[in-house]
Design a protein that fits this description.
The chain is mainly beta and 796 residues long. The chain contains six helices and 63 strands.
Length: 796
C-alpha cells in the first residue's frame, strides 16, 4: 500500500550543501527515468540507480564503471537519453565526469571488442545495462584536489562542471560543449572576479539559456555568495555578485541555486542560525544586473531547519527543502505563484515511518513527477521518495526508492598468510587472517554499521564468542574455529530506543551489559550469554534477559570483574547522569542490577561536569602502596586524565587529574598489567592537525597522586586513534584509517610498532579484542564486517 504524504495548506510568509554522500543525495529525472546516486558507503565504489518511470516495480539498473573509490555518483545530470555522472575523487581528487548514452539495441549486442581503458569492462558488461559509457571528461589543467565533477548543470549543448577544490578551494567552473558529432570540448573556465582561497566557487551551479549562476557558499568565512555569468558574443562574462548586506555570519549563501523562467533563486540555509532563507532575483536588462524581488522563508521558522538547503522548480512552483526541520524528519515547502506573484505555500511532510530521515535534503521536480532525497533514512543509508501529481493537484507517494545492502564476500575455510604486505585485498604486516564475515551476514541491514566489540569464553565449553556492536543492535559470532566463524544471532536495541553510531559491550558473570549513546531511552541491556550454547541451526533473534532503566543513553560501560561493579560513563538524556561521570552499578546479581553512587571530577570535561568518555577500573596492584588493594578508576575525561578511588561507592574520592599538551579530546586508555603505566589516546589531535601522526600518550602512574606524562609515541600514520588494549608486552590499537596496529611495549616509554592490519580502503577499525586464550584477534570495521586475525609468533 502506498504511503501518502500529508499536505498542509499554510499562509505564505514573504519577508522583503545538502548532504550528498548517502543514497538519495543526488537525483535527476528525465521524461522516462529517475536517477539516484549512492556515494555514501566509503568502503565500496559509488553507484547510480536507474529506475524506469513507467515500471517502478522493476529492478533498477545499477550503474558503475570500476572498483575505485572515486565517489562515482557525487553529481548527476541528465537530458534526453544522455547521463552525466560526477566522480569528484577520481585520480587523486582531480575528478572526472563519466558520460553514458542509452542504447535501445543493447540487448542484441555482444560483449564489445574494444572498451575505454578507464572502464572495468567485466563489471559493466555484467550489469547488462543499455546505458553505454561514451566519454570520460576531465579538466585540461587538472591538479590533485580540484574535485572536478562535484556538481553538474546542463542546458542544451552547454555543460557546466564545478571544481570547488581547485587552487586551495578557490574553485572554478568548466564549460564543456557537446558537439554535433557527439564529442565534447572544453570551451571556457569560469572564476570569480574576487576569487579567494577557501571560497568553494563551483559547489553549486545552475544554467538556463545564456545565464549561469555559481554558488560559493564558503565565501567570506561561510557567509557565501552567488556569481552570475552571461554568455554573449565575447564568451562568458561575470555580470553580478549576489551577497546582500543583511546576510548573517555563516549563512552559506549559494548553498543551493536554481534558475527558472528567467528568475534566479539562491538558498542561504544557515541564515539566522540555520533558519534559512531563499532569495529571488530577476534579470534587469537595463542595468544588466539581477535585482532582488523577494525573500522566501518558512512561515514557522525553526532554528537549524536549514530551509533553502535544496531547491527545485517546475511550472508555477518553487520547492524548498528544509531537511533539518521537524526534529530532523525534514520538510519540503512548495511556494506557488501566479502572474501577480506568490499566492500560497504548502508543506510536504514525510511519512512518520521513515523517522528522522532528513526528508528534503535533495529535491528534484519535473512536470508531474517529484523525487525527494532523505539521506538519513535507515540510519543514514538514505532513500528517495517518488511522488506523482494527481488530477486534483495533490502529490501522492508512489514509491520509496532504496539501495541494496553491500558487502564483500565472506572469507572462510583456511588461514590466509600476510604475504608481500597484503592479505587478500587488505594491507598487513605480520598479521594473518583466518576469516572475514561481512556485515550483511551477521545481522546487518540497510544503514547498519559496526562499532564496539568484546569477547566471551564459555566457562563450560571453552567456546569463544565475539560480541559485536552495531548501531542498531548486537551480533553474536562463534569464533571458536577461527577459520569458520558462525553467526549465532542478534540482540536488537531496546524497544523505543533509536539507532545511533555508538554502542558498547562488556561482560561479567556470563552476562553481557550493553549501552548505547544518543539512542534515547535505551538503558543498560543485560543478556544471559549462556543462551548462545543452545543455538545449533539458524541464527536467533534474542530478547534481553533484563534491563536497567536508571540511565537513558550512555557512551560506554566499564566493568571491574574482580569486584562485580560496573561504571556507566557519558550518561545523557535521562535518569541519573552523574554529570556524565561514573554512574556506579552493583552487578553481582546480574539480572537485578542496583545503583551504587556517582563520581565526577568537576575539574575535568569540556563543561566541567566530570564527563568521562571512557575509563578502566581495577583493584590496584601497582607500585603506589598507598592505594594497594583499592578500587581505582582512570578516566579519559575529554580534557584530562582523571584518577579516583571508588572503593567506597557512597564516598568516592578524587585522587588526581592531569592535563597534557595539545589536548583535543581525551578519549580512552588502558593500564599495563603491572599498573605502572597508562596509555591514552586523544581522538581529536590528529584531525585537528595538532600532531604530525597518530599519538599515544604514555603516563607513568607509579604515583597515583602525581601522574607524569613521560613520553608520546607518534606513529608514521596520520590517522585518528580510537581504542587500545594491553595484553602482556603488546598494545593492540584500533585506529580509524590505519586499522589494527600492534606495538611492542617491552620498553614501556618507547613503544615500537611490530605489526598491522588495515581494513578498507575507505573503512575504519573501531575496536578490537585481544584476550582470547587461543590468541585469536577480533577486529571490527565499521562498514565492512568482522575480521578474525592471528598475530604471527604470538606467545600465548
Amino acid at each position: 500500500m502506498n504511503r501518502t504524504l500529508l499536505l498542509l495548506c499554510t499562509g505564505l510568509l514573504i519577508a522583503s550543501s545538502a548532504e550528498a554522500q548517502s543514497f538519495g543525495g543526488t537525483i535527476a529525472v528525465t521524461d522516462h527515468y529517475v536517477f539516484v546516486g549512492e556515494t555514501g558507503n566509503v568502503a565500496f565504489p559509488g553507484e547510480v540507480y536507474i529506475y524506469t518511470l513507467d515500471d517502478l516495480a522493476a529492478e533498477p539498473v545499477i550503474l558503475s564503471v570500476n572498483q575505485e573509490l572515486e565517489r562515482f555518483g557525487r553529481a548527476i545530470a541528465a537530458h534526453g537519453e544522455t547521463l552525466f555522472v560526477g566522480a569528484s575523487e577520481a585520480d587523486e581528487k582531480r575528478g572526472t565526469v563519466y558520460v553514458f548514452r542509452y542504447n535501445s539495441a543493447r540487448e542484441q549486442i555482444d560483449r564489445p571488442e574494444e572498451v575505454p581503458e578507464w572502464l572495468d569492462a567485466d563489471a559493466w558488461f555484467r550489469q547488462n545495462s543499455a546505458w553505454e559509457p561514451i566519454a570520460r571528461l576531465t579538466a585540461s589543467d587538472a591538479t590533485p584536489g580540484d574535485r572536478f565533477g562535484d556538481f553538474i548543470a546542463l542546458d542544451g549543448e552547454k555543460i557546466l562542471v564545478g571544481a570547488p577544490g581547485r587552487m586551495e578551494s578557490t574553485g572554478a567552473v568548466y564549460v564543456i560543449t557537446e558537439n554535433a558529432d557527439g564529442s565534447f570540448s572544453e570551451t571556457a573556465t569560469l572564476t570569480a572576479n574576487d576569487a579567494g582561497v577557501g571560497d568553494g566557487f563551483g559547489a553549486t551551479l545552475a544554467i538556463e539559456n545564456n545565464l549561469a549562476v555559481v554558488g560559493a557558499p564558503a565565501k567570506s568565512e561561510n557567509q557565501g555568495a552567488v556569481y552570475a555569468f552571461l554568455y554573449g558574443s565575447e564568451g562568458w562574462t561575470q555580470v553580478d555578485k549576489l551577497a546582500p548586506d543583511f546576510l548573517t555570519e555563516r549563512s552559506r549563501m549559494g548553498g543551493s541555486v536554481v534558475i527558472h523562467q528567467g528568475r534566479v533563486y539562491a538558498g542561504a540555509p544557515m541564515q539566522e542560525r540555520g533558519q534559512g532563507i531563499v532569495l529571488e532575483y530577476e534579470w534587469d536588462p537595463e542595468s544588466t544586473q539581477l535585482l532582488m524581488r523577494d525573500q522566501l522563508q518558512s512561515f514557522d521558522q525553526q532554528r537549524s531547519s536549514q530551509f533553502g538547503a535544496a531547491l527545485a522548480a517546475s511550472g508555477n512552483e518553487i520547492w524548498i527543502g528544509a531537511h533539518r526541520s521537524n526534529r530532523g524528519r525534514g520538510i519540503v515547502h512548495r511556494f506557488i505563484s501566479d502572474e501577480n506573484g506568490w499566492v500560497g505555500a504548502m508543506k510536504l511532510l514525510p511519512d512518520e515511518s521513515i523517522g528522522r530521515a532528513a526528508f528534503g535534503s535533495r529535491v528534484f521536480v519535473r512536470g508531474d513527477v517529484a523525487v525527494i532525497g532523505a539521506v538519513r533514512m535507515d540510519s543514514r543509508a538514505g532513500g528517495a521518495i517518488l511522488l506523482k501529481k494527481e488530477e486534483n493537484g495533490d502529490w501522492m507517494t508512489k514509491a520509496t526508492l532504496v539501495n541494496k545492502v553491500k558487502g564483500h564476500e565472506a572469507i572462510t575455510g583456511g588461514e590466509i598468510r600476510c604475504t608481500e604486505g597484503m592479505v587478500s585485498r587488505w594491507p598487513c604486516k605480520d598479521v594473518d587472517m583466518t576469516a572475514f564475515l561481512p556485515l550483511p551476514e551477521m545481522g546487518g541491514g540497510r544503514g547498519s554499521r559496526l562499532n564496539d566489540i568484546w569477547g566471551w569464553t564459555d566457562p563450560s565449553t571453552s567456546r569463544e564468542y565475539a560480541l559485536v556492536g552495531r548501531n542498531d543492535g548486537t551480533s553474536f559470532v562463534d569464533v571458536t574455529d577461527p577459520e569458520y566463524p558462525r553467526y549465532i544471532g542478534d540482540l536488537p536495541m531496546t524497544d523505543g530506543s533509536v539507532a545511533n553510531v555508538w554502542r558498547d559491550i562488556k561482560v561479567y558473570a556470563d552476562h553481557a551489559f550493553v549501552v548505547a549513546d544518543g539512542a534515547g531511552q535505551h538503558g543498560v541491556q543485560i543478556f544471559d550469554l549462556t543462551q548462545l550454547r543452545e543455538v545449533e541451526g539458524q541464527p536467533v533473534t534474542f530478547s534481553e534477559t533484563a534491563l536497567y532503566p536508571g540511565i537513558a543513553s550512555a557512551h560506554n560501560i566499564v566493568i571491574n570483574e574482580e569486584t562485580g561493579f560496573g561504571f556507566v560513563v557519558g550518561a545523557s538524556g535521562g535518569g541519573e547522569t552523574c554529570g556524565g561521570g561514573l554512574h556506579m552499578l552493583d552487578l553481582r546479581e546480574p539480572t537485578n542490577v542496583t545503583f551504587s553512587g556517582c563520581f565526577a571530577d568537576p575539574n575535568t570535561g569540556r563543561r566541567k561536569t566530570g564527563y568521562s568518555h571512557d575509563a578502566q577500573c581495577v583493584i590496584y596492584s601497582g607500585p603506589d602502596l598507598t592505594y594497594s588493594g583499592r578500587e581505582i578508576c582512570l578516566g579519559s575525561n575529554e580534557t584530562a586524565l582523571s584518577i579516583a578511588d571508588v572503593t567506597d561507592k557512597e564516598n568516592p574520592v578524587t585522587i588526581s587529574m592531569a592535563v597534557y599538551p595539545k589536548v583535543a579530546y581525551a578519549h580512552q586508555g588502558w593500564l599495563t598489567e603491572d599498573h605502572r603505566y597508562f596509555y591514552m589516546n586523544d581522538e581529536g589531535d590528529e584531525p585537528q592537525g595538532l600532531v604530525e601522526g597518530t599519538r599515544t600518550l604514555v603516563w607513568d602512574v607509579s604515583d597515583l597522586d602525581d601522574p607524569v606524562l613521560v613520553s608520546e609515541y607518534v606513529a608514521s600514520t596520520p590517522d585518528t586513534d580510537h581504542n587500545l588494549y594491553i595484553k602482556g608486552n603488546l598494545m593492540y590499537q584500533s585506529n580509524y584509517g590505519a586499522g589494527l596496529r600492534i606495538l611492542d611495549i617491552t620498553n614501556p616509554e618507547s613503544p615500537m610498532e611490530i605489526g598491522f592490519f588495515e581494513p578498507g580502503p575507505g573503512s575504519t577499525s573501531w575496536s578490537n579484542y585481544p584476550y582470547f586464550k587461543s590468541g585469536t584477534l577480533i577486529v571490527t570495521s565499521g562498514s565492512e564486517g568482522l575480521f578474525v586475525l592471528k598475530k604471527r609468533n604470538l606467545d600465548i
